[in-house]
């Protein structure tokens, strides 16, 4: 795979854009660039349609009549496709209203049922991960060890995490990629080295940011819990999805007592949420089939995700170095690119920048006046402050395009950025 990326062809780019809502214009038909996909990605039309269609159906899937049985099939297919996304072969799947809820549940189950004296996480974790670790360390009277960030890469160095793990560590919680900087964690290396120090170590992973951008493979990174959010993965709001290893799934947890010990679903989940996941996998497999003639669904999904990675690396390079006749962010006096380096294999499609003439919030408002949506990360935010302070920053403008953006979109964004430098 090219470390610098590869753009989709123009005909394929047109097809891809046509499969999503509101890529080139907002819900009112106004032309705009939506570069805040890390806050909630473009929606696949098929995903939205599948969810809304099944939401009109009154039937309870826990019945024996024909419609109920068909709903059961939809849910079973959705669970199978969650396993396709994760390359999971066992374990338990459960859903909640948000991915944050699933993270708190996973952390609680492990921290309340595993002996040991400490737990390890990183300073860059989403509040759902960091706060749940802090809360349950306090409740169970354990030490919380926090690995620092690397201000140069925007991530956390593997050795800074692993050195905090010892034989008395209960749980390691790490994210797959930072939703501030886009830096990817070397999860395979982290898992291997941490388990070498403590073979019985429990590990949970926040994959919410990374899932739409790269491959997840639980066979290569055997962890005990992982979650993702469909609304950041081309789907809709309303559910967070988690997978648990068999050893965690059997821990005491909230459940209906007549159900199996490893059942984590409470009540009857929404069938449309599972249909939505299937449509996400359908789309990525369709994309993979443009480059691979395999009939295996996981193989096609892998190919589709690889092609998404290539497209996004090419978009990242265009943002940084320029597109067409327009110079890139790296070459604009008055723009500072944070966490910038040339190993694109270690970066998801997020860029953080600062302006010499504008505060982050002012820049976000100026972008919006010109039809561009980006996001201000500021030190006063519950979702940003801890991470920014670890980098020595007070604020940053976060740019998060998606693979369905084109070269022309990047060029337009860069032209608008030049305008902001003249204010």
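^ Assign residues to that structure.
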């Amino acid at each position: 795979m090219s470390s610098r990326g590869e753009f989709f062809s123009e005909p394929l780019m047109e097809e891809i854009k046509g499969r999503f809502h509101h890529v080139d214009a907002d819900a009112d038909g106004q032309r705009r660039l939506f570069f805040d996909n890390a806050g909630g990605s473009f929606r696949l039309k098929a995903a939205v349609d599948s969810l809304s269609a099944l939401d009109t159906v009154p039937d309870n899937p826990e019945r024996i009549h024909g419609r109920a049985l068909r709903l059961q099939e939809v849910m079973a297919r959705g669970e199978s496709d969650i396993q396709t996304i994760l390359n999971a072969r066992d374990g338990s799947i459960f859903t909640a209203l948000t991915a944050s809820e699933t993270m708190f549940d996973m952390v609680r189950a492990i921290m309340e049922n595993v002996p040991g004296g400490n737990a390890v996480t990183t300073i860059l974790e989403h509040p759902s991960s960091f706060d749940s670790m802090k809360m349950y360390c306090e409740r169970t009277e354990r030490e919380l060890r926090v690995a620092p960030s690397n201000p140069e890469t925007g991530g956390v160095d593997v050795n800074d995490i692993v050195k905090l793990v010892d034989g008395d560590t209960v749980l390691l919680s790490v994210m797959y990629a930072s939703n501030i900087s886009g830096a990817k964690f070397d999860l395979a290396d982290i898992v291997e080295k941490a388990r070498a120090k403590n073979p019985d170590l429990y590990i949970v992973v926040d994959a919410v940011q990374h899932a739409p951008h790269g491959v997840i493979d639980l066979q290569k990174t055997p962890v005990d819990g992982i979650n993702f959010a469909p609304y950041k993965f081309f789907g809709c709001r309303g559910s967070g999805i988690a997978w648990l290893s068999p050893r965690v799934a059997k821990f005491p947890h909230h459940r209906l007592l007549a159900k199996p010990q490893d059942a984590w679903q409470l009540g009857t989940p929404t069938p449309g949420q599972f249909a939505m996941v299937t449509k996400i996998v359908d789309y990525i497999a369709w994309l993979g089939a443009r480059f691979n003639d395999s009939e295996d669904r996981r193989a096609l999904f892998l190919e589709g995700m690889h092609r998404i990675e290539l497209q996004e690396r090419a978009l990242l390079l265009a943002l940084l170095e320029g597109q067409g006749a327009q110079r890139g962010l790296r070459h604009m006096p008055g723009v500072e690119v944070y966490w910038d380096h040339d190993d694109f294999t270690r970066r998801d499609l997020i860029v953080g920048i600062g302006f010499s003439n504008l505060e982050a919030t002012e820049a976000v408002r100026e972008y919006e006046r010109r039809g561009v949506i980006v996001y201000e990360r500021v030190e006063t935010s519950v979702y940003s402050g801890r991470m920014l302070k670890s980098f020595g920053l007070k604020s940053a403008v976060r740019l998060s395009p998606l693979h369905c953006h084109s070269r022309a979109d990047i060029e337009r964004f860069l032209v608008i950025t030049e305008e902001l430098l003249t204010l």
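The chain has 13 helices and 15 strands.
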